[in-house]
Amino acid sequence: MKVILVDDEENNMDAFEMETEGMTEIEIAGRFRDPWEALSYVKKHPVDLAVLDVEMPELDGIRLGKKMKECRPEIELIYLTAYKEYAYDAYQLYAGAYILKPFNRADIETAFENLKRFSTKRFSDTDTPRIFIQTFGRFEVFLDGKPVEFKSARAKELLALLVDRKGGIVTTEEMLTYLWEDRPDTDTNRSLCRKVVQRLHSNLEQNGIGDIIERHTRGRSLKVDRVRCDYYEYLEGKEEGKRAFLGEYMSNYSWAEETLSRILSDTKLSQDS
Description:
The protein is an alpha/beta fold and about 270 residues long. It contains eleven helices and twelve strands. It folds into two domains: about 1-125, Rossmann fold, CATH 3.40.50.2300; about 130-273, Arc Repressor Mutant, subunit A. Helix content is about 45%, strand content about 20%.
């Protein structure tokens, strides 16, 4: 994997090279203090991964990453930052991972594990599900590293609700309660709910992943074994799941605050013990 490092501070690039020494899958193809020089290099040379510092003068890492994606869409991104809030901007750009400063080899290895969840097939194990679901921060769905677009916002929210239930059946009544808080349980509204369910199935089938939803007489459920999800990895105690949680859970949906409260409570108990 050809990797370039972009940071206005030499010591950060030195530290990255030192910590990755012996990682045979990494080939450092270039180091750049000037982000514009890095962008010019990417335009002319094949690069698999760019490790970018977020806080740089003239052109910050977030904007640099966008420009790199525009000229080379397949490039993978990992961000170095001292501030957790920049991680949300990174994920909105569909960066594979981020590393908080100061970092060590374990942090880099975890970032590369996260990269595999978002990246294209060449970085993935053959038995790894093609679908990765991001719940920490905003809810998003990735297929082979690329974001899945939803034509219906309600259909996307319904999928989020199914993910939140971790494989449990979500009934029509519950769909109405969570997706339309102010609508009564009437035949008209049940018909509206059925249309949203149909749109979700259609959207997923168009992407070739319709089989992740289980149909039941009473409602629908998610086939959790067909996906990877940061929330599930967190619950399983996996390190990548713990690192992915930065204090937000499905921030685009108000009903998700109940689950967020449980996560925060569990995190506090774990820290106190």
